[in-house]
Amino acid sequence: MTNGDKIFKAVIEDSALISYGGYNPDDYDSLQNALDDENIVVSTVAKIIYYQLRGHSEREIYNEVTNFLKNNVL
Q1: Number of structural domains, the chain?
Q2: How many CB atoms lie within 10 A of CB 49?
Q3: Cβ atoms of residues 58 and 25 within 8 Å
Q4: Is the dihedral angle over the CA atoms 11, 12, 18, 21 positive or is it negative?
Q5: What is the mean pLDDT of the chain?
Q6: What is the value of pTM for the model shown?
C-alpha cells in the first residue's frame, strides 16, 4: 500500500463523506482503482489526492476537478 493509498483510505473513511456519497469504504483498496470509479465522491477525492501527489499546483487541481465535475455531474 502506497502513501497515496493510505491518504485516500483515511479520507474516504470520513463518516460525512460516506453519508453524502453513499459508498462503502471497504470497497476501495487503492487510489489508482478509485480514479475512474462510478461514485462521483470517491473518484473526485481520488483525483484531488492523485494530482496533489504528482506535484500539480492548486490551480491545476482546481481546473482538473472542476472540468471532471462539469462533465460528470451537470
Answers
A1: 1
A2: 22
A3: no
A4: positive
A5: 95
A6: 0.90
